[in-house]
Design goal:
heterodimer; A: mainly beta; 1 helix; about 10% helix; elongated; B: alpha+beta; Immunoglobulin-like; 3 domains; 4-stranded antiparallel β-sheet
């Protein structure tokens, strides 16, 4: 079995990791105005490094990770892009 | 200075898969969809404990890659550090709502599904089944009950009979027969051989078959813990005896019995 580099996560683990873990009620209740604020959605675009491994039968295994290093180097990594849009569920 | 990919790297699509190998878009998308399915399963499990307040509406992946054509198919080579001028592929996957998660994902109740990964079904067949959303034995049973033509759905020669055989084989291997002892006994006034152990006669639709010293012998009774074989007066036991018992199509045991 050809596996992706161990520094990379399967996308199935990376994508849920991008979901926010925010409280439903973001701001405290304003007694004067009666306004309560809540988040209705979010839109994340993240650069990712990808490792695409190809098995002998041609099937593909995709691994991804946020940029691994934060140092400027003479040879820069290739950054791909992962875009996730999430919305608040009605009645949530 | 940035280096473009070498010509040989682009052309050598049959090279061993180690390192950066060229992939077909179809296989890439298949893998992406499978990953999204797994994500959905993860979210469904989370939703059991805490209803989702957010759902993933859209996912897009931009991949920098070099397309190449080998005369047979277009393949892509993922851009590597230092390589410039790559094409950008954008793959967009549609929305998943909480309701869709509930509607399209089975809640795992009671015993967990038996994964096809735990069976002897080969990797290629599993991959084809996974593409059509089949990952467990229960998924397969569901398709069969709906009379789905597997050959047409997978575009291959997979059929329910051969799959069932492999699955049963794996199950039997997981609960292999084990003989703890063989002794002479009496049943209904007749001499018989009592084989005792575990996981022996477990298939009610298949009565065990016994052969003693190359002669078929009658099995008087059987169960998971025992098999009673009648000894034929025409073929008495010798000093060394070979007893072969077929418990079911997937479990055949040969023991040497010294009288």
């Amino acid at each position: 079995m050809i596996a992706v580099d161990e520094a990379f996560l399967p996308l199935a683990e990376l994508m849920p990791g991008l979901l926010p873990n925010l409280p439903d009620i973001y701001a405290t209740f304003d007694e004067e105005t009666g306004i309560r604020t809540q988040i209705t959605g979010y839109d994340v675009t993240s650069p990712v490094e990808l490792d695409v491994a190809v098995r002998p039968d041609g099937s593909v295994e995709i691994g991804g990770t946020p940029p691994l290093y934060h140092l400027a180097t003479s040879t820069l990594p290739v950054l791909h892009r992962l875009h996730v849009v999430a919305v608040r569920e009605d009645g949530a | 200075m940035a280096q473009p990919p070498t010509t040989s790297a682009l052309e050598d699509t049959s090279a061993p898969a180690a390192g950066n190998a060229a992939w077909r878009l179809e296989d890439f998308v298949d893998s992406l969809v499978v990953e999204l399915d797994k994500t959905r399963e993860t979210l469904a499990v989370k939703a059991i404990n805490k209803p989702l307040s957010y759902s993933v509406k859209e996912i897009a992946l931009d991949v920098n890659a070099f397309p190449t054509y080998d005369g047979d198919a277009v393949r892509f080579l993922t851009a590597q550090p230092g390589q410039e001028g790559a094409s950008k592929l954008t793959i967009q996957l549609g929305s998943i709502t909480d309701q869709q998660v509930r509607a399209t994902t089975k809640l795992r109740q009671g015993q967990p599904d038996e994964s096809l990964g735990d069976t002897d079904v080969d990797e290629k067949t599993r991959a084809k089944l996974r593409k059509i959303g089949v990952s467990s034995v229960d998924d397969l049973k569901d398709l069969q009950s709906r009379k789905v033509d597997l050959k047409a759905a997978t575009g291959s020669d997979i059929d329910y009979t051969s799959l069932a055989r492999k699955i049963n084989q794996s199950r039997r291997a997981a609960a292999a027969p084990r003989i703890d002892g063989v002794s002479l006994s009496q049943s209904q006034g007749q001499p018989c051989l009592l084989v005792e152990g575990r996981n022996l006669g477990v298939d009610p639709t298949f009565p065990p078959v016994a052969v003693i010293n190359d002669h078929l012998a009658e099995v008087l009774s059987s169960g998971p813990g025992h098999v009673t074989i009648r000894l034929n007066a025409d073929h008495p036991l010798r000093e060394e005896n070979e007893v072969v018992v077929t418990f079911d199509p997937y479990a055949v045991v040969k023991v040497n019995v010294r009288a």
